[in-house]
Amino acid sequence: MTPSGTQTQLGTITHWIGGKPWEGSVARWGDVYDPALGEPTARVAFADHAVVDEAVAVATQAQKSWARTSLAARTRIMFAFRELIERRKRDLAEVLTREHGKVLSDAVGEVNRGLEVIEFACGLPHLIKGEFSENVSTDVDSYSIRQPLGVVAGITPFNFPAMVPMWMFPIAIAAGNAFILKPSEKDPSASLFCAQLFAEAGLPPGVFNVVHGDKAAVDAILAHPGIQAVSFVGSTPIARAIYENGTRQGKRVQALGGAKNHMVVLPDADLELAADSAVNAGYGSTGQRCMAISVLVTVGDTADRLLPRIQDRLRRLKVGPGLEATAEMGPLVTKDHLARVVSYVEQGEKSGASLIEDGRRTTIAGHERGFFLGPCLFDKVTPDMSIYSDEIFGPVLSVVRVETYDEALQLVNANAYANGVAIFTNDGGAARRFQNEVQVGMVGINVPIPVPVAYYSFGGWKSSLFGDAHIYGREGVQFYTRGKVVTSRWPDPRHRGVNLGFPQTH
Ligand code: NAD
User: Fold this and answer.
1) 8 A C-beta contact, residue 434 and residue 412
2) What's the pLDDT at 5?
3) Residue 380 and residue 398: Cα distance in Å, rounded?
4) Is the pLDDT at 500 greater than 90, yes or no?
């Protein structure tokens, strides 16, 4: 395996344990597809209990000396890793496109957002500084320190195979932990690309490990007493189960789940900006983003003016293989997922919503077996329809028409998910009121995908996040470290009989 990640070089994808590819025998494999071709391109090893045990044993050993390595040396390795990712960005993006299907420009954007967290982690020495209080009692000082947890694990989804793991491991590793990553089995190569660049950057073997697989690997991670904390990102039912199972087994867990993000458009909004934003956020990455907009809430007569603008843009959107320079929207990730999204389009039609753009007839010459679906747009959607209530995770945008701002707010706040939300308006007072009243973790004002920069933290509310800590930023640092407070008294030599020659003062 080399980081260039081409089909012939990939062949067989296996775990990465102790700074090198794992060489044991594999009982179960999964297929990895090129979604634009609709064909398998590699097979990936699935880990069982024994592989996870081995990874934890290696990581536990490596973590002991890694935690003793100076902050300066740890940070230097993180800087070197950052430089390598920056230099190999385009290669990593190609790996993402080949397995996930997203267009190359989007894949480069994904790596750039991950890089921001690596850069944030380069500043870790500053972020884990403790506090010091002198003379809290006579001759007694108190101070706080933050220490790594030990071995921690990350379990990640298919839709950002580079960025989501990068939300986790740079901070965890810079803080002195060893990390075990269980990436999505649908697009596993990006994690190995990172592992190899970490090795080149000088990270000691065993500090960053990758185990591939499915539920069996995840269950082994949750059950292992040697793993102190688990970060999970994926769908809500699995996030809930991971949180309940992991915490029951005494682990610290942050589990980020699914989403149904609304974009509210008030009548005074800049409709050209709103139309661009709805298309970018609704159909970018073929709707497979946890911050994608999947519901457009139009207030008053806005829909009649906004929808023709959106339809005009959708008709010009170029659907095609992600590696083709002209493509703006790639395929869905798997055949099963394509079938699932299409079944939602059928349900939407049956339930009485108007399908005003239908992407089901999209075929791409030379890629007839690819998992393509063109943009779909439903008008007159109501909250009782499954296309409204369920996370579809595809290029399907639902328009719900309401009469007032209050109705729009009520709709958003009644939803079970609460990851991201956006409001489009030119009224600062309305935007400010919305920011205060909306019960959602990440809010955009005239910004459709308000993913926080690396020095804030990412996370939703309600069924979009289980656990107390949001991911990356300061909350990420807190999550991967634990605090200790020391109260210390050093006997003053003046209290003893021996004179050590200190200058005498009064
Ligand atoms: P998923 O929940 O199917 O899988 C996520 C991870 O869990 C994968 O590594 C997978 O192998 C593992 N997994 C799957 N089934 C499991 C089971 N039964 N038991 C234990 N582990 C299991 O999610 P996905 O389809 O890969 O990704 C899409 C989902 O992720 C969407 O719901 C999306 O909203 C969500 N997501 C959320 C965020 C966020 O920040 N909130 C970010 C990205 C994606």
Assistant:
1) no
2) 41
3) 8
4) no
Q: Looking at the DSSP assignment, which residues form a beta bridge with residue 443?
A: 421
Distance CA 234, CA 475 (A): 19
Distance 257 CA to ligand 1 centre (A): 7
Q: Which two tokens stand for residue 407?
A: 């109705």
Task: Provide the 3-class DSSP secondary structure of residue 221.
Answer: helix
Query: How many angstroms does the Cα of residue 159 sit away from the middle of ligand 1?
Result: 9
Q: What's the pLDDT score for residue 4?
A: 42
Mean pLDDT score, 435-459: 98
Catalytic entry in 122, 194, 290, 376: 290
C-alpha distances out from residue 474 to 254, 293, 457, Å:
14, 26, 7
Give residues with Cβ within 8 angstroms of 32, minimum separation 6: 10, 13, 40, 41, 42, 43, 44, 99, 185, 186, 187, 188, 189
pLDDT at 492: 76
Residue 112 exposed, middle or buried by CB count within 10 Å (0-12, 13-18, 19+): middle
Taking CA atoms only, the protein residue closest to ligand 1 atom 16 is 215
Ligand 1 pocket test: pick from 185, 219, 290 the residue with the most ligand atoms within 8 Å of its Cβ.
Answer: 290
DSSP-based three-state secondary structure for 355: strand
List the alpha helices (DSSP H) in 284-427.
302-316, 335-350, 386-389, 405-414
CA atoms within 13 A of residue 173's CA, in its CB half-sphere: 35
The 10s digit of each residue's pLDDT in 460-479 is 999 999 999 999 999 999 99
Assess whether 290 carries a catalytic annotation.
yes
Question: Average pLDDT, stretch 452-461?
Answer: 98
Q: How many whole angstroms separate alpha carbon 131 and alpha carbon 39?
A: 56
Element at 484 (helix H, strand E): strand 481-489
Residues 119-139 pLDDT 10s = 999 999 999 999 999 999 988
Alpha-carbon distance values, 500 to 467, 489, 492, 494, 505 (Å) = 54, 18, 11, 9, 14
CB-ligand 1 contact for 22 (6 Å cutoff): no
Average pLDDT over residues 377-396: 98
Smallest CA-to-CA distance from 440 within 454, 453, 421 is with: 421
C-beta of 311 in contact with ligand 1 (< 6 A): no
Q: Is the Cβ atom of 290 under 6 angstroms away from ligand 1?
A: yes
pLDDT tens readout for residues 32-68: 999 999 999 999 999 999 999 999 999 999 999 999 9
Does the pLDDT at position 235 exceed 60? yes
Residue 503 has pLDDT above 70, yes or no: no
Q: Ligand 1 mean position to 234 CA, how many Å?
A: 3
State the distance from the centre of ligand 1 to the C-alpha of 350, rounded, in angstroms: 28
* Residue nearest atom 18 in ligand 1 by C-alpha distance: 215
7 pLDDT band (50/70/90 cuts)? very low
Secondary structure class of 175 (helix, strand, coil): coil
